[in-house]
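Quick one, T. Sequence first:
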Amino acid sequence: MTPTVLMNKLQVFLQDITKDMFLGPDRLAPNIYMVDLPARATPEYEDQTFETDIKPADTTIEDEKDERWPFIIIIFTAPAEDNEDGYRTMNMDFIFGCEGSGSDGYMDVLHLMEHVRTAFLRDTYNGWPARLTRPLSYGFNEEQADPFWTGYMSTAWEMPSIVQEVWEHGY
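Structure tokens:
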């Protein structure tokens, strides 16, 4: 198994357990992304004719809802290493983000992190390519940009290691 297989499984799992959640002022279910947030959709600009070849720069973007929030991002953070017990350990981090003023955003992120944590610990791993190991660590980033709140969770997953084959005739 590869980290990509586990990331795909985690994305499907997180989409399933969070589909009925309602977070933020717009009460939306979180988007589940792998690696990073996608680029934000930008408004369309009308092509206008001007007396010069240089168009004036319009640096003002209307205050619109960022469609990416709330979210969970899945990130593979450490190399998979074989240990003495015949398992590979892969570290996966999760970044959580919710929108909300003051304590509302904070509480939404905390609720989302705890919901994911309990789902991971409750799951029986039937058909999973890896097994979660304890401890799970999670918390809030030190600096927050109200109304956008973020938190993180670090996890380690064990999966069977590759068994080296012996060739009959050398190389």
